[in-house]
């Protein structure tokens, strides 16, 4: 029992501790601006170490669902530039998402899977359907940034999605939005210096959200078509 649920309890405890500590209040554009010289100096002198530290921090923040993931993405672009910062963010977020997925799937997911196998019926059918089309479903949810990131992590684990499909769909699906916000972060220093405010709602601009929704629907449509064809083939 402890072996199965121990990691989950530690994760929950970490989430509670982070929220209780109020760590999220330090993740702000004001603090970034106030420490710009110090941060840029450290990055310039220790680029590789800085990137590794950023990936670890982002992975940990993703794992405990700390408020401020958007700020960290902006900070990555601010400190490392659009492409390097965005790449580090994608790696960190994917690692953190896999960590949460693995913990939930081996605890609550295992229990739910055992119950589904024992009872059969609709629950088993739903879990089997999500498992078989996991890549397309998860990719759609990552491309269209409407569902909370942590919720997709937990739901995928409960549905027993294959780890490889989950990890690859997460890695690919978060890239567009990540690089968009990373590019905003890359220019944020000049915006703040002018006393302006960065456009943090850019992801919901029609020219941005439109292509993302189109890609998400294309992914979902392809998955549903493949599932339907497979079902017809097995029934014939």
Explained architecture:
- The protein is an all-alpha fold.
- The chain has helices at residues 2-21, 29-34, 36-45, 47-63, 69-80, 82-119, 121-132, 134-143, 149-158, 163-173, 175-186, 188-193, 206-235.
- Helices cover 82% and strands 0% of the residues.
- It is globular and about 60 Å long.
- The protein has one domain (2-14, 30-235).
- The termini are far apart.
- Helix 4 runs parallel beside helix 6 (82-119), helix 6 packs parallel to helix 9 (149-158) and helix 8 (134-143) packs antiparallel against helix 13.
Q: How would you summarize what this structure contains?
A:
The protein contains 13 helices and no strands.
Q: Ranges with pLDDT <50 over ≥5 residues?
A: none
- Percent of residues in beta strands? under 5%
Q: How does the overall form come out from the CA principal axes? A: globular
Arithmetic mean pLDDT: 80
Question: What is the distance, rounded to the nearest whole angstrom, between the alpha carbons of the first and last residues?
Answer: 44 Å
What letter string, H or E per element, gives the SSE order?
Answer: HHHHHHHHHHHHH
Helix content: over 70%
Structural class, from helix and strand content? mainly alpha
Number of helices: 13
Note the quaternary state here. single chain
**C-alpha Rg, in Å?**
20 Å
Q: Count the strands?
A: 0
Count of discrete structural domains: 1
Strand count, sense and barrel status of the largest sheet are: none
């Amino acid at each position: 029992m402890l072996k199965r649920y121990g990691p989950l309890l530690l994760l929950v405890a970490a989430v509670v501790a982070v929220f209780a500590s109020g760590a999220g209040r330090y993740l702000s554009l004001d603090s970034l601006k106030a420490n710009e010289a110090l941060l840029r100096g450290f990055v310039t002198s220790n680029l590789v170490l800085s990137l590794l530290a950023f990936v670890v921090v982002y992975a940990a923040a993703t794992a405990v669902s700390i408020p401020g993931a958007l700020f960290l993405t902006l900070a990555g672009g601010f400190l490392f530039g659009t492409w390097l910062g965005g790449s580090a963010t994608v790696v960190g977020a994917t690692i953190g998402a896999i960590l949460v997925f693995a913990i939930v799937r081996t605890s609550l997911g295992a229990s739910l899977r055992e119950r589904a196998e024992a009872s059969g019926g609709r629950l088993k059918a739903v879990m089997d359907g999500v498992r078989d089309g996991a890549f397309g479903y998860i990719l759609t949810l990552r491309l269209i940034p409407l569902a909370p990131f942590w919720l997709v992590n937990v739901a995928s684990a409960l549905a027993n999605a294959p780890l490889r499909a989950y990890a690859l769909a997460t890695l690919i699906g978060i890239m567009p939005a990540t690089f968009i916000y990373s590019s905003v972060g890359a220019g944020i220093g000049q915006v703040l210096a002018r006393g302006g405010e960065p456009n943090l709602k850019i992801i919901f601009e029609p020219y941005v959200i439109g292509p993302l929704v189109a890609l998400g629907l294309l992914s979902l449509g392809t998955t549903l078509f493949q599932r339907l064809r497979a079902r017809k083939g097995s029934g014939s």
